[in-house]
Every structure is written in C-alpha cells, then in structure tokens.
TrEMBL record:
Keyword Transferase included in the entry's annotation: yes
Name this protein carries in UniProt: Aminotransferase
Keywords noted in UniProt: Aminotransferase, Pyridoxal phosphate, Transferase
Pfam families hit by this protein: Aminotran_1_2
The protein's enzyme class: transferase
Record has Transferase as a keyword: yes
Organism: Streptomyces wedmorensis
Amino acid sequence: SVRVAQRFASVERSATVALLETVQRLRRSGVEVLDLSGGEPDFPTPEPVVAEAVSALESGDTHYTPSRGVPELLRAVADKLAVENGIHVDPATGVIVTPSAKQALFTALMTVLDPGDEVIVPTPAWVSYPAMAGLLGARAVSAELGAEDGFRLSRRVLDGLVTDRTRALVVNTPANPTGHVLDREEAEEIVAFAVEYDLVLIVDEIYEKIVYDGRVHLSLASLPGAAERTLTVNGFSKAYAMTGWRLGYLAGPEPLISQALKVQEHTVSCAASFVQRGGVAALTRTADDVAAMLKEYTVRRDMTVSALEALPGVTCASPEGAFYAFADIRGTGLTSAAFAQRLLDEAAVTVAPGSAFGPGGEGYVRLSFAASREVLRGAAERLSRLAAQWA
Ligand code: PLP
C-alpha cells in the first residue's frame, strides 16, 4: 500500500471544517440547520473592496505580483501597522502579503521550527496551531488557561513548559475561542518571558477590529524589546468579511521575514493580484463598514450571552473580543462533545465542542455570533426548548 509521511501521525483533520461539512450535508437533505459552529462573518464584503477588485480584474491586473506583495498594499499594511498598532516595519523588507492569515501562520511557524522543536500554544486554542506544528514535524506544548482568571496567560502557566527544544510562543489576541483580549500587564509578562528564554513570539491578531466595551487592542510587537523577536500575523477575513478572498499578511524583523519569503516564493508565489488591490481598499476605505459591523456584533454578543445564561446548567462570561461565546456547560452534566451532538441531533443547531480546542476546552462549547440576529433568535428558542428536557 502507498506510504504517507510520518508527520501526519499527530495531525487530525480540522474539527471546525468537519462541522461545516456536516452542516452542508444536512442542509442538502432538507434539514433547517442553524449553524453557530463556524468563524465566518455573515456580512457582505464592503462595497469599496469589491469595486476595487473588479476594476483591477477589468483593467487586466491578472498576473503574478512580486512574491512579497504589490508595493501599494505593502505600503498600506506598513502604514496601518505604524498608525494603529505601534509596529514599525519597512514595507520593502518587513512585510509579506500572503494568501490568508492561515498561510501567514504556517509560514511563520515554518520559519522558526525545525522538526522536533516545540512551540508553546496557550489553550483552549484555535484548532490549526497545533496541527500546523504537527505538519512541520514539530510539537505544540499546551499552556492550559482557565476561566477563573479570564483565560489570561501568565508566567505561572508558562515557566514550567520551556525545554531546550522550545523555540516559540503563539499568542492570539483577541482570542478564539475564549474571547480574551490581551491586557498590558499580561503583554509585559509575555515579552519578558520570551526575552528570558530567547523565544520568537508568533502573534495572531486577526480579530483585532472586534473588541468590545471600549477595550483597546494591544499588539505585542509594539512593546519595548518585542519587535526584534515578534512575527505579527493578520488577515482580512474577519475584520472586512473577506473569508473567501484569502488574504493576510506577516510582519516582523528583516532576518525572519527574509527567510519567510523563501517559503512564500517556493510554495504559492504570491497572493492573487486583484485580491491584493481589494486589500488596499479594505485597509484605507472601510472605516465606516468596520464600525457598523462592530456595533452589530455587540448587539449579537449581548443577545447570545443572555440566551445562554438563561439555560439551566449553563453560564457564559461576556467575551471581550472576537465573535464567539465560550459557554461553560459543566452544570448540564454533559461532555462538550455530547452537548454539541444533542444540539445537532435534537435541535439542528451546530456549535463547536470545547474539547476540539485542546486542554482546558472540555466543559465548554463555542457558539459563533457572526450569524444574523434571526438565526441567533431561532437558535436561542431551540436551545431553551431542548434545555427544558435536561433541567
Ligand atoms: N486565526 C484565527 C484565530 C482564526 O480564528 C482564523 C479563522 O478561523 C484564522 C486565523 C484564519 O484566517 P484566514 O481566513 O485569513 O486564513
């Protein structure tokens, strides 16, 4: 029989992608599924972005671009990072535009991890970080976070995890699935930790535009001493409702970015030309759209949290950022997988079981509120009817 590479031994298929496939299959067979399992904004991509990409297509902008990205977008990213994030990079040497944040993350991890190396991943975490480490023959080591301190990361959790193979720490702020937003004291502790053990920080800021109650997103690379060891990853999927466009970027110090560029050159060459033109419009002409989406997410967050809090055995802290409610279901006596399965089988509502997000995730389920109010209201009704049975 054919042989596949050893690296797949530790890698599962994406649990959230599998859920999406289940939803599509059920819908084809006529079931009216209310899907809260995904991470996809239901908003249309803002009009200036679409118009710019269409005009790029019509004007023949349909060929390879420089591997790093088109100069206009590199400049727009560098300007944005300077103004909004306090991150200062040279657009010519410190940024790579990638086809998706996922690709930027994979490139970042490949840039710093050799086979056998370790990367610390605070969990519960987005499912792809440990999988990507596995695909590279490296190992993700979980730093388990807890609800008692709001899923904050601290030296207390980190210090015992370092070995002579530890090369990097992944930080995701605002965090998927917990909704935690990094605070300054936490950020300072993380940077001190990375400096002490000479680690690279790989920081995924894809939810930066989605922070609530006047909180301010803080970029780790803006802290003193951090820039020289931080790779910042971001993307257009969430902030600008551009999941299908596949556009993101990686920014950091030249010695790391120059190596990362080799990954890009020898794999994808570049992000799609007209998509990059749309990206320039997203960064420069969508402030009103982004503000309107945040306002709507805030309403949906409050609807979702109060619906969850009304269920017997369920509690839910209001997320500080991103668009997920991470509900504590321990009071129901069900495992997260059993809870999610019952919701699917008995109410046709899909949620992601906390167990999919690694150590610390059991006892929770993640509900995305990047769905319309109508879908959220429908799901709330179905859940309260079902909960009457387990109460
Ligand atoms: N990072 C996190 C934390 C995410 O939740 C997601 C999407 O689900 C991504 C990265 C991937 O974004 P992209 O669509 O740009 O690949």
